[in-house]
Amino acid sequence: FTTPTEIQSKSLPVTLAGDHDLIGAAETGSGKTFAFGLPILQHLAARAPQKGKEDLGCTGLILAPTRELAIQVTDHLNRVAKFMRVKIVSIVGGMSEQKQKRLLSSRPDVVVATPGRLWELAREDQDVISRLRKISFLAIDEADRMLESGHFKDLDHILDAISLRRRDTDESSKKVSKRRTFIFSATLIQDGRLKMRLNKPMKFKGGAPTFDDLLKRLEFQDPKPVYIDVTSTSVMATSLVETQIECLHTDKDAFLYYILTRYPGRTLVFVNSIDAIRRLVPVLGLVGVKAYGLHAEMQQRMRLKNLDRFRDSPDAVLIASDVAARGLDIPNVEHVVHYQLPRTAELYVHRSGRTARGGGG
User: Fold this and answer.
1) How many domains does the chain have?
2) For residue 77, is it within any domain?
3) Torsion angle of alpha carbons 214, 217, 223, 229, nearest 10°?
4) Are 327 and 28 in contact (CB under 8 A)?
5) What is the H or E stretch that residue 229 is in?
6) Does some domain include residue 243?
7) 239 in a domain, yes or no?
8) Which of 8, 43, 119, 195 is disulfide-compatible with 154, CB 3.0–4.6 A?
């Protein structure tokens, strides 16, 4: 990219200079990856050359809620660091466990991971935990999704294992510089509740954890983390054109075919169930529309293959569950179709955010 996006232009002066922690709110596709990734790469570029075989530990840990997003972040950072002597690896589910164990033990400079797979591999390996305690940067992307069922428990285990309190008792980690924390999401704190006491211990009141719980759990070193909010006050992107078609349930397939043929271009069709994807892909194929599926039960290899096919064809159609609604970098999506309405308004925003996106990262 040649021009920074709004979140980049506002956050990079903070993250590249000084030692502040940062909480950033920006819409999906606004360039959050480079907002937290470039400071880590700058730190690595300025790092003194490694002497002998001394293990300097892992410099940055980036956590993302889905494997596709983690792989995307890794790809973006590797492109920027193409001519740097740094090692950036992704640790995600759906890949060979043995291969990922080797990646973790290969002394990477930056680990990009989903909480579930990272904790699965690290909890029995004290050497990995020790290296992760040395991180100078902790970044969490799509932070609000970490509160969903399954994510937060693993994230909580990781945060406890790499806690600064534990680092103080780890002789190999005592020489590490101050840790900085960057947390980004598309929907953070809409009412500006940053005046809360971040140093209060986390206490669950029953039920699902809240965003306040996550913030308290993060052990910010900055007593007043910088808060940058560039989310649109109108919630939906101003460049987005919304249209509604009222029809009977039995006519949905016909209207979908009409939309796809009347308005050609790269199109994302969102549904609420895997069964709907398995039905629609062959149905559209029968009428000459080449469509690809994307859902959580697909093998990782096929998911990535279908994403590549969708990116490579200007008139491709992707039938997806909400696994694709958050964070994924699918450029030049011209149309988004809600074949089935999402269950929440927030999901509608994230689905629709697949088009009218910002550029680069």
Assistant:
1) 2
2) yes
3) -20
4) yes
5) strand 226-229
6) no
7) no
8) 119
CA triplet 183, 146, 157: central angle to 5 degrees? 95
Q: What is the pLDDT along the chain (361 residues), one digit of tens a residue?
A: 678 888 999 999 988 987 889 999 887 777 889 999 999 999 999 875 655 555 567 999 999 988 888 999 999 999 999 989 899 999 998 888 889 999 998 899 999 999 999 999 988 888 889 999 999 999 999 888 887 756 788 999 999 999 887 655 655 555 555 899 999 987 655 434 444 434 444 444 455 677 777 888 888 888 889 999 887 655 555 567 888 999 999 999 999 999 999 999 999 999 999 999 999 999 999 999 999 999 888 887 888 899 889 988 889 999 998 765 565 667 778 899 999 988 877 777 777 766 655 444 4
Question: Which structure tokens are listed for 309?
Answer: 């096919």
Residue 65, domain extent: 6-229
Whichever domain contains 293, its CATH number is: 3.40.50.300
Whether 150 and 208 map to the same domain: the answer is: yes
Task: Work out whether the CA dihedral 299, 304, 307, 308 comes out positive or negative.
Answer: negative
**Residue 285, both tokens:** 């194929």
Residue that terminates a domain, selected from 181, 197, 229: 229
Q: Which amino acid is at 42?
A: Q
151-161 helix and 115-122 helix, angle to the nearest 10 degrees = 50
Residues 69 and 180 in one domain: yes
Strand, helix or coil for residue 256: helix
Domain boundary among 197, 229, 261: 229
pTM equals 0.73
Q: Are residues 205 and 314 in the same domain?
A: no
Q: Does residue 193 lie in a domain region?
A: yes
Distances (CA, A) of 159 to 47, 176, 217: 25, 17, 8
289 and 325 together in one domain: yes
